[in-house]
């Protein structure tokens, strides 16, 4: 959700810079911002504090940043293509006539999720996902320490889809993950799913030379073992697009009814 469906990653950056400015520290560089995106707890990690050299403790920073982000998150808005993509997928089917099933897998905790989807523009987004098909960062089904880039959150999301189906079982290889973060791409690859990477412009620039490694989940940024779960360079199991507006449905055998407009944010 964050940085993919809504502009909350920008809000994290703005909130962080607000406090860095308060304490007379340099603002986030593009490189540092890229390293923080999509990684749970990264804005209070040792890596961040070693770079920021703040005059306050980890605990004080966490409290202040949490309060600041809470203010910013109330102003989150959908990113380009979000509404039309969700609308199309909710009514689409495969070539064999099977309907597309949707699940949300986000490292956002429930309290942040509620804030981020509180505006009229974002309030409609959760409606596309049944409540049991929303897997958040503090979901009891997600074991502690097994957030992205571990595959667990996507495996849980898939289980939530299959538990609501009367007969057939969806396999990991039949799933398509949409992700904006490097950690999220790796999580999707480790789950055995195909991935569409829609990076923030700053992230795309930062990893331009390593895009193939990102798509394979082989950046080496995360050491969690189980490397057999990762993909291979140029294996065709992942791609990168500039925004959700550029998603090609037919490429994945997804058929959108002709009466649905593909070019308008129609709700």
From TrEMBL:
Which stretches are annotated as coiled coil?
Answer: none
Question: What span is annotated as the signal peptide, if there is one?
Answer: none
Q: Give the Gene Ontology MF terms in alphabetical order.
A: phosphatase activity
The family database entries (NCBIfam families) matched by this protein are listed as: HAD-SF-IA-v3
Name this polypeptide is given: Uncharacterized protein
